[in-house]
Amino acid sequence: MAENLIKPENLVYKKSGIMTDRVLHYCPGCGHGTAHRILAEVIEELGIQNETIGVAPVGCSVLAYYYFDVDMQEAAHGRAPAVATGIKRVMPEKYVFTYQGDGDLAAIGTAETIHACNRGENILIVFVNNGIYGMTGGQMAPTTLIGMKSSTSPFGRDIKTMGSPIKMTELVAQLPGTYYVTRQAVHKPANVRKAKKALKKALEYQKLNKGTCFVEIVSNCPSNWKMTPVQSNEWMEENMFPYYPLGDIKLPQDENKK
User: Is 255's pLDDT higher than 90?
Assistant: First the structure.
């Protein structure tokens, strides 16, 4: 009986063929899995599987090469934009993306991020921001909110001694080399659709050779925030979104005229 129901017209969801059958290592409720899924769906819908190269550095995304059935290259911690730059310059016809967390992109790889964007390297940078070092023990990251506790800020981030959280997306949007800069989320169906649309536009823009596309995805980290998935999503909405508001920050000039 069940076999009779598995027909195209009855399918609510089907796993993208770009995703492998490896079981994701991410914690329950983490946004990384959804971000992976929609990026894979975009690659499949654009029909660019054989033309896509991804770069994954150290961090929670360190095993991303297990999950995408496209060519993947590992990079040292924070160096994904530099590696992606080399790949794109040697093979400019390829679609090249990096997939990075906030500790990687906004701390260890700050220089690589800023200079790749400033040069306008024709790549897509996917930036997953959960406000903490997820893989290495829940340490304070550059994106950790003021007052937010972590393993290295047990009393909360103190702005006097630790500075303010860095808004990387607003920062790179000021650089002339960036072409499309946006901040999205994946905790609700409507947000997933918007994030997927942003990723699709960003990959399509690569054919224009107009500069770097930067897509931030504000996510949760139930394990290091020490919350249930539901609690972490609520906390994210109440605390992360006011500081990291969702939406497009820099659009191509022709879209601004629409």
Answer: no
